[in-house]
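Suppose you are handed a protein chain with no further information: no name, no annotation, nothing but its sequence. What can you learn? This example shows the usual starting point.
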Amino acid sequence: MEDAGNDIGRLAISYFTGGFNCAESVLKALCQELKPDCKNCVRIATPFGGGIAGKGHLCGAVTGAVIAVGLCMGRTTPTGDKSQCDKVARRFIDEFIKEFHTVSCRDIIGVDLLSDEGRKKHKEHLRDEKCCSVVEFAAEKMYNLIESMR
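A reasonable first move is to predict its three-dimensional structure. Written in structure tokens, the prediction is:
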């Protein structure tokens, strides 16, 4: 299972370096491997990149991972049990904060993606220097957490 988790991280990075945003990359890699019932996974995640449309709020890699756990383990009726899904999501957030000290995109990358200067710095080096490790961590961690609950 650990090897598959590492592979999922590399797959997420390949999507990210290929042009998908952080949320899309994490969700696409997790959906490809875990195969939840969702043919439009990337479309769901599109507005979450850059901390929700570049606003710097909740990290898109976090959002993509949490969407994936919902697709894989979420309830389908109002009375369905959501405890396992919530447990995985909480544990993921705890592990993410332990690793990066925040879930805020702006705090992680240190720039405003809505400014010309921030976008330039992000494109020139922050995607590689900061975001790739975040994308990889999110995909691997969530994959391993979901698999441990199956």
